[in-house]
Amino acid sequence: MPAVALVGAYASISAGIAAGAATLLGGLQIAAGVMTGLGALTGNKKLMTIGAIASLGAGAYSALSGGSAASSASGLESVGGEGVAMGTAAGNAGSNAVEMGFADLAGGSDLGAVASGVSGGDVAASALGPAGESISTLNAPAAAAASEGGLVQQALGRTDPAGAVSNAARSGTGSTPAGLVQTNALAETTDTGLLAQAGNKLSTFAQLIEKNPNVGKLGLGLVSGASDAYSEQQQLKARERLLAEQRARYNASILNQRA
Amino acid sequence: MQEITVDSVRSEMQIPKEMQDAYSRIVKAGLKLMFDPSTRAQTMEFMEGEGDFAQKMGEGIAAVMAMLFKESNQTMPPQLIIPAGIELLVHAAEVAGKAGEDVSNEVIAEAMGTFVESMMRQFGVDPAQMQGMVSGLNSGAKPQEA
User: By Cβ atoms counted within 10 A, which residue in A19, A179, B70, B135 is the most buried?
Assistant: First the structure.
């Protein structure tokens, strides 16, 4: 396979991969028993560290994935489509955090994420913006604000030329009204960090596989078949959650007016 | 967990019921990618090549999972990537063991750590952050419930 095509393949891998950072880390919990057990059995520090992270739960993943500043266009789906962030643990942040991130609108190169710790109680946050719309479709900053509890968390995003702005305001793990909520502002283009990392890490074995013309005939699409149903189910759940949250917000605003 | 086998690993996995089918399919596809008669030669070529065996195994499985993710049009549930990859890794270890490779629990552990770290990097998570987080916890910082 020509080098350019290979790089292209890695780009697509990286872009999709970056979208699911927090979800990937959710998989640590599934495998936590295996890793912790084997880590303890062999004294492997790497596994023990990972096991410790797994035990922290969803909040740790949020902190990790937010701080790492990954981005992809598909990551936006979780912002607009689901709209509610996930819990965070103290971890290295030490507290709830207000995080603001910016993706470079013009060049997508000199990007940075700013995070500042703010102590505060549990808060619930909801993303502002029409249901089902992502930042890329809005093409404007999106904000996630705390609805109660006093801690405001914002994530501002602007699209880069490829629309690759992401925001890890993901729901599904610990995003209850009373729980901690964190919106992660992510800012890094795929053509710099992630792509290079993926390319370096995967090149050897991936190249061997890619060279094999029979790989396409293996019927690996069965993975897609399995995932499609799951994906639809998740999207449906996400929509239901969003509707419920909208309803709650409307009700709250009406109740406030009456009061 | 004393003996690392495919069965022991799978029994330790806490796979949500609604994901079990997808999980099985991913593992099956991964096995096909690694050990189908049409790809086995490449797998063996890679495993028998130069470099640390655990490192190769971990990075090789990471490549397999990335390939599967791509083949699924990125619809594969990301939370299954690490668990399925771990099971594939143990499959690969068993095959390597049968082929005469000395695959101890320590080697599997090292390969597993390499695999997870590799996947994390690809997803934009810096493993160094993990170490920092754990250090913070060890120093007395108290995590909040998620």
Answer: A19
Q: Which pTM was predicted?
A: 0.52
Q: Are B26 and A223 in contact (CB under 8 A)?
A: yes
Residues 6+ apart with CB under 8 A from A4: none
Q: Nearest by CB to B72, which of A56, A205, A227?
A: A227
Report the sign of the C-alpha dihedral through residues A193, A195, A196, A197, in that order.
positive
Of the candidates B144, B128, B146, B122, the one whose C-alpha atom is nearest the C-alpha of residue B58 is: B122
User: Which residues contact residue B126 at a Cβ distance below 8 angstroms, ignoring those fewer than 6 apart?
Assistant: A64, A67, A68, B120
Dist CA A165 CA A12 (whole Å): 15
> Residue A49: is its pLDDT beyond 60?
yes
The beta-carbon neighbor of A46 closest among B60, B117, B145 is B117
Residues 48-107 of A with CB under 8 A from B: 49-50, 52-53, 56-60, 62-65, 67-71, 74, 86-92, 94, 96
B55-102 pLDDT, tens digit per residue, is 999 999 999 998 888 888 778 888 899 999 999 999 999 888 888 888
Please tell me which of the candidates B110, B124, B136 has its beta carbon nearest to residue A18: B124
pLDDT in tens, A211-239: 666 666 665 555 555 555 556 666 777 78
The answer to whether A206 faces chain B, any CB pair under 8 Å, is yes
Mean pLDDT of A116-138: 33
DSSP A93: T
Q: Is residue A87 over pLDDT 90?
A: no
